[in-house]
Specification:
homodimer, alpha/beta, TIM Barrel, eight-stranded parallel β-barrel, two-stranded antiparallel ribbon, 15% strand, globular, orotidine-5'-phosphate decarboxylase activity (chains A, B), Aldolase_TIM (chains A, B), OMPdecase_AS (chains A, B), decarboxylase (chains A, B)
Chain lengths: 321, 321
């Protein structure tokens, strides 16, 4: 986790921008601007809308990345948004990761994978790349990925091994930000405590052999900003586990609410905002249907930059020391 | 679930072939046979090994599919094996799904996705395809997908909605076949019962509005063959939930062990085998390093067909009526 912690220190900003494009978050003239390019290159007419969105997603992401790269330490592309477009979307996911990495950002792939041991080892290729002879090939360009704990230790170990070998990290779901997360995660256990606390203890143990210079292991935890008290208790319970905190902004989490998820030194967590940054252009009041694609992208950039600065300042005031 | 159940009835065979290729499961001369084709079409030398494996995976899968299409009702490609090769692998995953569907097979995409509601809706594009204007585009070609329950109801509902709209199905992880599945799934709850039983009840309820002509809902459950007693108890506990049963063969599950996961009519479950079928050529004793690629693929086909017939007969004798 050292690389992420140092990137946060350099930026003096414990926030990560979620790159979760949807058709509604990309200005329509940007999508339309790729109509000719896509219809020339895609043979099957049925594939054109998805291909056009995919190209537009990359242009949109590149615009956001360029606008925030000197403000934030990291980005978190959510692969679901790209899978929704099929393989063309997956290509753009990897292009987005690669471009962000080239701009010096830590790339946290929100892929929430999880499977039994032998299959988890294949998923861990997201971190290790393709091992084949003497060439090294890293098709995903992720510095970390999110992982689901429901399968237990043998579904996690391959990711820890791959992360260790490649100087990368993972973040395991512990307490997610969504309302129905309580249905499983808050269940009371017969031996005391709740399920998410049991998972928290597993996560702390899964990372125990990989603690870095800054005191945190390679196995982080996902703890939603929508659970301030639980998050603060987990901070104490998991002293060597770095937190990825989703749910700030659009989902209702606040800087004051996430303050308890940071450690006494102001480290220990990174807070994600997706729609609040990449959709800021829609709330700016400056968008006009008559804008050109370039004008719309300029607004996307300036609104995202401003929102990222606001979030950084909010966290600096309330959380980060 | 009606389409799957009818496919099983037509084949008189409640088994599904897992299409989980690995570098070790594809005969090396098959991989080598694509060297020229790939080096001509791939620009970056670092990408060549993965691209060559990806092409070989498709040829291997097509060989297996052709060999078993008249014996089994379904195939289950495991997307992790393809993601391990990067986007080129994901392309081959979708090509494999499309080819299998064209051969009349029910395609069960083992993707184990799961996220919060808005993101789950994007993942549900695996089933719904890309909604865009008046063109319909289904890039994934899956008839069902596997889903992780850790996020609760709002992570499941989008999949159920998409499955219902598209006449497709999902299978939710309940009791997985791996050894450390017990770490979470067998936890005793304060209100009685174990975590996987609580998940089982959720799964039964998630499907309750989608029960088909054959009495099973669109929301199935993954129940490992390595847990015979628990599986039999779950069969009674979840009367409208169809089971996907992994872990037969290589992981130690037997036909006698899975018998209790079927209902009184011999329906209610489909049993997966992956390595036991697609890796049968390695155990045949007939493989020779001197074989050509075509000869090796012929052996792959005949060994897979024979293994699939053996599994079918094993299930017919012990389970299926």
């Amino acid at each position: 986790m050292d690389r992420l912690i140092e990137a946060i220190e350099n930026a003096q900003n414990p926030s990560v921008v979620g790159l979760d494009p949807t058709p509604a978050l990309v200005p329509p003239q940007v999508v339309a601007s790729f109509a000719d390019e896509v219809s020339d290159s895609v043979e099957d007419p049925a594939e054109i809308p998805a291909a056009q969105l995919a190209v537009a997603y990359f242009e949109f992401n590149r615009t956001i990345i360029d606008a925030v790269a000197d403000i934030v330490p990291a980005v978190k592309p959510q692969i679901a948004m790209y899978e929704a477009l099929g393989p063309a979307g997956v290509d753009v996911y990897t292009m987005t990761c690669e471009y962000a990495a080239q701009q010096g950002l830590y790339v946290l792939g929100d892929i929430k994978r999880g499977d039994i041991g032998s299959t988890a080892a294949a998923y861990a290729g997201h971190l290790s790349g393709v091992a084949s002879g003497d060439t090294s090939f890293d098709p995903w360009h992720e510095d970390a990925v999110t992982v689901n704990p429901y399968l237990g230790t043998d579904g996690i170990t391959p990711f820890v091994d791959a992360a260790t070998a490649a100087d990368k990290d993972i973040f395991v779901l512990v307490r997610t930000s969504n309302p129905s997360s309580k249905e499983l995660q808050e269940l009371d256990l017969a031996d005391g405590g709740k399920l998410y606390e049991h998972v928290a203890d597993l996560v702390e143990s899964w990372g125990s052999a990989t603690i870095g210079e800054h005191g945190y292991s390679r196995v982080g935890a996902v703890v939603g900003a929508t659970h301030p008290e639980e998050g603060a208790a987990l901070r104490k319970r998991m002293p060597h586990t770095f937190f990825l905190v989703p749910g700030y902004g659009a989902q209702g989490g606040t800087a004051a609410g996430v303050a308890g998820m940071f450690d006494a030194d102001g480290s220990g967590a990174i807070v994600n905002s997706s729609r609040g940054i990449i959709g800021a252009w829609k709330k700016s009041g400056e968008y006009r249907d008559s804008m050109t694609a370039d004008e719309a992208l300029s607004l996307v950039a300036s609104a995202a930059r401003s929102a990222a600065q606001d979030m950084r300042d909010d966290l600096r005031i309330n959380v980060y020391r």
